[in-house]
Amino acid sequence: MKKRGYYMTKLTFNDLGLKESLVKAIDDLGFTTPSPIQAEAIPVAISGNDIIGQAQTGTGKTAAFGLPMINNLKIKNAIGSIILAPTRELAIQVHDELVKLTKYEKLNIVAVYGGAPIHLQARDLKRANIVVGTPGRVLDHIRRGNLPLSSVEFLVLDEADEMLNMGFIDDMEEIMKSIPDERQTLLFSATMPPQIKKLSKKYLKEDAQHIVIARKEMTGSTIKQNFFEVNGTQRLEALCRLIDFDNPSAGIIFCRTKKGVDDLVAAMQARGYMVEGMHGDMSQIQRMKTLAKFKNGSLKFLVATDVAARGIDVDGVTHVFNYELPQDIESYVHRIGRTGRAGREGTAYSIITPKEFGFLKQIKNVTKGNIEKGNVPTVQEIYNAKFKLMANEVASIIEAEDYSKFVDVATQLTENHDSVKVIASLLQSQFKNQLSFDYSSDKLETPKSSKENDVRLFFSAGRRDGLTIKTLINYIKNNAKVGASQIRDIDIMENFAFVNVDNTIHKQVLEKCTGGKINKRRVNVEVSTNNKKRRSNSRKKAQ
Ligand code: ADP
Ligand code: MG
């Protein structure tokens, strides 16, 4: 029975030494029981100790540092706390959570990050009590004199290892050096790489408490894990087949690099998937928009790097795909932790090449995860799964919807034609767009799409004409009789669109697609002479 005390005694937020107004705010948020890191860190931090806290993502670290910080903050007319976070999204997330926690306090919380006008932030900082920001931008404000440090009582480093990964170590050190020594420092990190240990030794007090919350073992968790072994060129095909078979309602797909993200997004979009990418090179507005779309369900898939996805808190992710395995085991745990949240079931698929099998085994051993070998669905299996969905949809319409206005035409059709043929044709017209691309062969072979041989084409129809990636692909496919895999890098603009096709088929597309109609609009197709996605050698020529 010698388990952790808080399970046995049902510890509450009342027991942690927090003031009334904070307990009330927590109550309003609906938190009933402190999480392990909160139970252990809050009393220690309230007593004034520095903390090195280690716990998995999603364990409530924000409140673990936020609550004691707000509880003990003395300064009310100047900046009393600085919180460093690795990305704009995380800074905003921490900001939003702190706003909720300070519901009954008169504290002004300001988030600062790159990509937003610095003078507006400088103005906001004049009235700030708590500042949350990315290290680069915080340092920028310090250097400009926008962020006076003399009154700072608290310094928090959130996701310190990620800030290290993002190359912020020098900025972090400079900030730590500049803030008065009497301050209290709370450092949180999922892992403890040597540089973070060194930083803690150097800038935290000697009696700093190291609190480690053991990672939950993956066995018996609600996340189903499978791996699929393919050749390097078959990753995309395998991913698409898994998606088409499982039909996930929301999935995050991980790549190692920003370029990997961009390439995969382009390839998936060309096949008609609702997908966008997220990585550090994108503007803040772009990333927030993407995240918002993913959260409200208008975007089904998000392709991300580890850093961009770290800590992002989205419920209802049914699938995590490791399109490429991560660099380290810790990241694998973080990645798959994006699904199966709040006791729901989740699925984590890893697509690996034979060379990566050794590393996967290592992951399996360390995480004690039950990662089972799976088979990429065959074309027939995918069709069967789709047909089952179609049949269910039809059955539910028969049962629950009013289709009486179609009864007459249905009677006519079945009088003139065999009823099976009638139904099959209707299904064909209804569902042809649900099959995302041509599975040309059952063998996992993806045609090599060499961008070197791409030709960029201009289409004189755009969003205004109701053009979408899918309608454009279908238009090209149906008119020029080419495969969807030969069509890529589609950009739909307001009044026109661009698309790349193999040079072997570009004449055919030009000839067959010119003069046809997309949504009643007659389209003109030309070889594009001026576009950023042209080959780099043609750009050189132009210079
Ligand atoms: P971390 O920083 O460890 O990844 P967060 O601080 O972002 O975790 O918290 C994850 C989610 O859990 C947030 O939505 C937060 O509001 C919620 N949360 C935090 N503490 C509790 C608690 N004690 N009870 C219930 N939910 C909590
Ligand atoms: Mg966090």
Fraction in helix: 40-55%
Tell me the overall shape: elongated
* Structural class estimated from helices and strands: alpha/beta
- Strand content bin: 15-25%
Q: Provide the spatial order of strands within the biggest beta sheet.
A: 3-4-2-5-6-1-7
Each distinct ligand: adenosine-5'-diphosphate, magnesium ion
Detail the poorly predicted runs: 1-8, 445-450, 531-543
Largest sheet: 7 strands, parallel
Number of E-state strands: 20
Q: Could you tell me how far the N terminus lies from the C terminus, measured between alpha carbons in angstroms?
A: 75 Å
On the 0-100 scale, what is the average pLDDT? 86
Using only C-alpha atoms, the radius of gyration works out to: 28 Å
Instruction: Give the count of helical stretches.
Output: 22
Outline the structure in words.
With 543 residues, the protein is an alpha/beta fold. The chain contains 22 helices and 20 strands. The strands form 4 sheets. A 7-stranded parallel sheet has the order 3-4-2-5-6-1-7, with helices on both faces. Strands 10-11-9-12-13-8-14 form a 7-stranded parallel sheet, with helices on both faces. Strand 10, helix 13 and strand 11 form a beta-alpha-beta unit. Helix 4 crosses helix 5 and helix 7 crosses helix 9. The protein is elongated and about 85 Å long. It binds adenosine-5'-diphosphate (ADP) and magnesium ion (MG). The site of magnesium ion (MG) has 4 residues, from helix 4.
